[in-house]
Structures are given as C-alpha cells and as structure tokens.
Amino acid sequence: MSPAGGTVGNIDGIDIGVIVAYFVIVIGFGIWASLKNRGSVGGYFLAGRSMHFILIGASLFSSNIGSGHFIGLAGSGASSGIGIAAFELNAIFVLMILGWFFVPVYVASGVFTMPEYILKRFGGQRIRIYLSVLALLLSIFTKIAADLYAGALFITLAIGWNIYLAIVVLLAIAAIFTITGGLTAVMWTDFIQTIIMIIGAVYLMIVSFIKVGGFEPVSRRYMDAIPNTTIFYRMAVPNNYSYKDCGFPPDTSFHFFRPPDDPGLPWPGIIFGLTISSVWYWCSDQVIVQRALSAKDFSHAKAGCVLAGYLKFLPLWIIILPGMISRILFTDEIACADPNLCEEICGSRAGCTNIAYPTLVIRLMPVGARGLMLAVMLSALMSSLTSVFNSSSTIFTMDIWRQFRKNSNEMELMVVGRVFVLIMVGLSIAWIPIVQNFSELFNYIQSVTSYLSPPICAVYVLAIFWKRANEFGAFWGLMIGLVIGIIRFAWESAYTQVICGLEGEDKRPSIIKDVHYLYFGMLLFGIVFIIVIVLSLLTKPIPDKHLHRLTFWDRFSEAERVDLDRSDDTKSHEAKEPTSPPEDEDEDVPCWRKGVNWICGIEKHPEMILTAEEKKAQERKQTSLEEVPIYRKLCNINAIMLMSFALFLWGFFA
User: Fold this and answer.
1) Distances (CA, A) of 558 to 116, 305, 605, 620
2) Within a domain: residue 5?
3) Tens of pLDDT along 500-521?
4) Is the pTM of this model over 0.85?
5) Rounded-to-integer distance, Cα 654 and Cα 634, Å
6) Rounded Cα distance, 325 and 314, in Å
7) What is the biggest distance separating any 2 CA atoms in the chain, rounded to whole angstroms?
8) Above 80 in pLDDT, residue 163?
9) How far apart are CA 151 and CA 144, in angstroms?
C-alpha cells in the first residue's frame, strides 16, 4: 500500500516524539479544563453553558474539519479541482442562518438536545425517538466511520501499521478522552487543535506552493497532470480506448459553477441541494448546535458562528489546493487510472486520490515537521471523533435512555453516556470496509447525507418558521422521506462502483446514474415539505399556549408555555431533574471505587439549595436573548462582511 517512491511508510523517531508530546499536552490540558464541569449532567453535556465565542467558533470549525476533510477535500481537489470548495463557502451562509434564526429559538426554548426541541415543539415521543436514532446512525455511517478510515489511512501510509490496528489505537484515545472529559474538555482541546491544525496546514501549503512555483503554475500544470499509463494506452489504442476519460482533470477544474449535467458538482445542486444538507448539518445536528448552546450568552453564540464562518475560508487554500498540487507532483500515483496499478499503489481499485494529502506530507516535509503534520491530522481526527462521541452520548442518554428509565439518577446517566461511547466504537469499526470501497471519501459522506437528511431539514425548517406544522404531519413526512431515502441508498449500494477503464460500461438504471445525489436531496426535501404542510392543514393545529418561544416569530414571548410533553395524566421525564446519586460514606468507599467515580464524573459537590425564585432567575438567564447593543452591532457588521467576501469568491471562481 505504499506509493512507488519508497518514502511513504517511514517516519523518523523525532516525528514519533512530536506526536507523543502532542497527545500528552493536549489530553492533559483537556482533563484539567474539564474539572470544573465534570460532576453534573449540564456540565458534562453543555459545558455549564459558560463558553466564550472564541472557543465556540474554534470548536465549530474543528468539529467539522476532521481528518475526513483533510483526506476527502484534498482527494476531491486532486480528482476534479477547486469545485469542492463550494461546500465550504456554502457553509458560511448557513452558519449565519444558524446564529441568527435557529439558535435564538433553541436558546429561548431552553433545550439540551435537538430531539428535545422537537419533543417540545410537536409533543409525543415518536418523532423524538426517530430523530435520535437516525442522528446516531448518521453519526456512525457518515462521521465516525469516515473519519476513522481517513485517520487510519494516514497512519497506515506514514507509519506502516495495519489499518485496523491504527483504528483501534485512535478509537481508544478518543473514547478515553471523551469518557473522562465531557464537553468542556472537548471544546478546550478543540481550541488548541484548531491552532495546531491551521499552523501546520498553512506551513504545508506554503511549502507546496514554493515547490510548484506559485498559484499561476498550479492552474497551468494541474490540467497537464495526466498519468503515464493514460498517455500510453491512448497512443496504443487511439480508436478503441476504454480509458478515454480516465486520468484527465475535468475542463471545469477551476470553476465553482459547473454545467447542470456535470457528474460531480452540477451548479443547481450546489446552490439548492447542498444548502438543504447544510441546513440539516449546521442548524439541526446535535454535534454542531451543542457548541452554540454552550455559549455564556446569545451574543457569544452568534459571534462563535461568525468566527467559524471566517475560518471556513481556509480549507480552499490549506487543503484543496495542496491536494491539487499533490496531483501535479506525484501524478502517476495520485491520478492513477489503471485499476490494477491503483490497487498496487494504495489498495483501492477505484483510485488513489484519497492519499493526496498524506503523500504530500510524507514527501515534502522535513523531519519533525512531518510529525507535526501527523499530529495535525490526528488532532483533526480526535477533535471530530470526540465531538461526535460526546454529542451522540448526549442524545442517547437524554433522549432515549431516559424514555425507558424515567427515574434514573445522575450517576446512572453519567455511566450510561460513557458506556454508549464504547458501543459506538464497535459499530463504527464494523462499517469501515464499506467506506473503503469509495474512491472519493467526501462524495461518500455527502451522498449518504443527501439520502437521509432532507426530511429532517424540512421538518426543522417548518417547525421553526411555520406555527401551523403539527406532530401528525411531521411524523408521516419523516416516515415517507425515510422510506424514499433508504430505497435510493440501498438501490445504489447494490451496484458496485464503476471503475474507469477496465470494469466495462455503467449498467446502473438511469434514476441512479443520471440523478445526482444533490438533485435527489432537492427532490426529497420538496416531497417531505409538501407532505408535512398538507397533512398538518388536514389535521388539528397545536394550540398557541404550547408554542410560546418555540418558533422564530414568538421567540421573545414572555407568556408561560404549557409543554406538550407534560400532560396531566403522565409526566414526561423532561419535567424531572435527574436525582442525585446516593451518598456513600467516604470512609467506606474503597480506592478503586473512588477512581471509577472520578473517571465517570460521579463526584460529590457542595449541595446548592435554590429557592423557587432563584431557580426562575437562573432559568431566565439561560434562556435570555438579550444583547449588549454594541455586541449586537459588531456581530451584524461582521456577518455582512463575511457574506460579502464569500460572494466575491463565488463570483471570482464562478
């Protein structure tokens, strides 16, 4: 699995030392940072709602940019040019939607998780359970498995380990860190990892551009980066050539807007279909929204979204363009078109663009700096994994476990959340072989997302902006959307990926072959959107007394809300705070038990007895949308500047 140059698979002992030092420092700092918020559910899952906007913005960015992005974005850049950067620029606008339209509702409603919001908005348990389970499945199939494969691929190429050994080591570190730390540790280390990630990636970008002579030579030499096998076969059999288009960069490699029938990135899909998936990911996915909800106040939540938006300009320059340079420098390996040769080079018959970034690191960077970049890749992986682990355990604990154990105490919830992380580890490893079959990792992630997320996006958009939407319409819209999405996903998965050149013609039906996954996402969103509206209009509306502060239009309402999930005959677990664990006599607790309690965050704290008035004051503070005028203006000005610059880049590379 090593490219034909002999250097990949060998790193110096100094590099190993840099990696070890990185983990010792970052993990130690994370555990230290977590101490003040460890012993409670609110502290473990929402960092005590005390986070600064810099930590929020850095965490939003690093939670999104995992090793899957370093491998996937660079690989897509090597395969088809800068077009994949449209995904990053699109996220800038959707982050503003999160901060200005969705977060106000979530904060005003006072929820922990996104399924909890849906429960309050629509009532009943079936939608909440469905969204919780689907969120966990998406985390396993599109986040954890993809990031694990990407990180393990880098370690395999750099160190020479077996890919599954690399996966086990990565998972062990990430799981231990998440289990012991909670969200505070995750967000503080996200901040450190973001700095390391950016410094290392910028350094590699500079080295790469120096190697090829600057940006102008990239635009010229990239189009000529055609592997020798492709040139040889074209000369040998010019009139009957099965490699006709294999190994050639597309003519639109330096364009964001590509023809509607483009097989990779059609412009209508980028503008509309991608926005649908992005709204689901940035505005309703627990991993992302959990960071915004941890803000100390509403202004910090918005400012965190703005900072993350500024950081989203970086991937084009520090990941995608270096991936294109990797193709220029190592054409025969990165752009290989012969499936047999590709399998020999990187272990995949579908192509080797996924190794573009790791190969660049191993070949170009000096001793020590190589170790730093491996630490950068690992930091991206760890940041993404710990974020998903923490958020997924939050969903499982607060939205699923407490359905079956309504009177569970705080000790039980803290332990269950951590044990569930271990279960996710096993399921993610089992899915790795499926991910390995895709030549472009980023396209795999986006395609699965487009099959499963549009129904959720439609329901959240209507829940936030249309008061008339009710539980009956939302539930059946989700069910029908799920069936349609699963059919498309299963149908497409039944066909092996078409490999350019040697594997014959594409025999997939037209609905699979010609309907791009972004177009399918648009279609699925429209179907569910209409179903929810029609069924809601045909059934009884939700009374206004249940909707105060649950939609964008009445987020400032001060009327008392009667929650749908708290009926007179049955009290939902939301009405109950988890009870404290029974106190043990300190003298009777053995040392090993104290150690286990510390790992699980089960610690005694001085009991705070609040009066009813103090509890209401605390709740008002946590759900307040008040802002200092100067901070509000600064957030608005920066949001406008940010979107203006993003529009300029769209136009420049259109």
Assistant:
1) 20, 26, 33, 10
2) no
3) 654 456 677 777 878 889 999 9
4) no
5) 30
6) 16
7) 87
8) no
9) 10
Q: Which residue has the tokens 């120096």?
A: 210
Our measurement of the distance from residue 142's CA atom to the centroid of its chain's CA atoms, rounded to an integer in Å, reads 8
Whether 415 contacts 485, CB under 8 Å: no
4, part of any domain: no
Q: Cα(427)–Cα(193) distance, rounded to whole angstroms?
A: 26
Q: What distances in angstroms separate CA 604 from CA 176, 219, 439, one per listed residue?
A: 22, 61, 51
What length is written for the chain? Answer: 654
In one-letter notation, the amino acid at residue 600 is C
End-to-end CA distance of the chain: 37
Q: What is the pLDDT of residues 302-329, one digit of tens each?
A: 999 999 999 999 999 999 999 999 999 9
Query: Would 152 be classed as within a structural domain?
Result: yes
Which residue in 632, 522, 464, 638 sits closest to 92, CA to CA? 638
Q: Give the pair of three-digit tokens for residue 467.
A: 């008061």
Q: How far apart are CA 59 and CA 305, in angstroms?
A: 10
Q: What is the mean pLDDT of the chain?
A: 78
Q: Residue 568's CB: how many other CB atoms inside 10 A?
A: 5
| pLDDT tier, 146 (very low <50, low <70, confident <90, very high otherwise) | confident
| CA 276 – CA 525 distance, rounded (Å) | 8
Helix H, strand E, coil C: the string for 423-487 is HHHHHHHHHHHHHHCCCCHHHHHHHHHHHHCHHHHHHHHHHHHCCCCCHHHHHHHHHHHHHHHHH
Q: 280 with 453: CB under 8 angstroms?
A: yes
Tokens of 598: 């510390």
DSSP string, 491-543: HHHTSPPPPTTTS----S-HHHHTS-HHHHHHHHHHHHHHHHHHHHHHSPPPP
pLDDT > 60? residue 179: no
Q: Which domain holds residue 118?
A: 13-652
Burial class of residue 478 (count of CB atoms within 10 Å of its CB; 0-12, 13-18, 19+): buried
Q: Residues 340-351: pLDDT tens digits?
A: 787 777 777 777
What is the Rg, in whole angstroms, of the alpha carbon atoms belonging to the chain? 25
* Whole-number Å distance between alpha carbons of 36 and 572: 30
Listed residue (223, 248, 218, 243) closest to 233, CA to CA = 243
% of the chain beyond a pLDDT of 70:
74
Tell me the range of 291-295, 423-427, 458-462 where mean pLDDT is highest: 458-462
Q: Are 290 and 183 in contact (CB under 8 A)?
A: yes
Position 10 scores a pLDDT of: 54
Please tell me what DSSP assigns to residue 252.
Answer: T
> Cα–Cα distance between 216 and 319 in angstroms, integer?
17
Q: In Å, how far are 316, 525, 554, 604 from 94, measured between CA atoms?
A: 17, 17, 22, 42
The CATH number of the domain holding residue 540 is: 1.20.1730.10
The pLDDT tens digits of the residues spanning 539-568 come to 999 999 999 999 999 989 888 888 886 543
Measured in degrees and rounded to the nearest 5, phi and psi for residue 516 equal -60, 150
Nearest to 72, CA basis, from 365, 447, 337, 496: 447
The two three-digit tokens of residue 384, written as one number: 């993404």
Considering the domain boundaries, does residue 595 fall inside one?
yes
More confident residue, 28 or 469: 469
Distance CA 514, CA 516 (A): 6
**How many separate domains does the chain show?**
1
Query: In this structure, are residues 319 and 70 in contact, taking their beta carbons and an 8 Å threshold?
Result: yes
C-alpha to C-alpha distance for 53 and 30, rounded to whole angstroms: 18
Residue 31 parent element (H or E)? helix 13-34
Torsion of CA 306, 308, 310, 313, to 10 degrees: -150
Say which DSSP state 405 is in: -
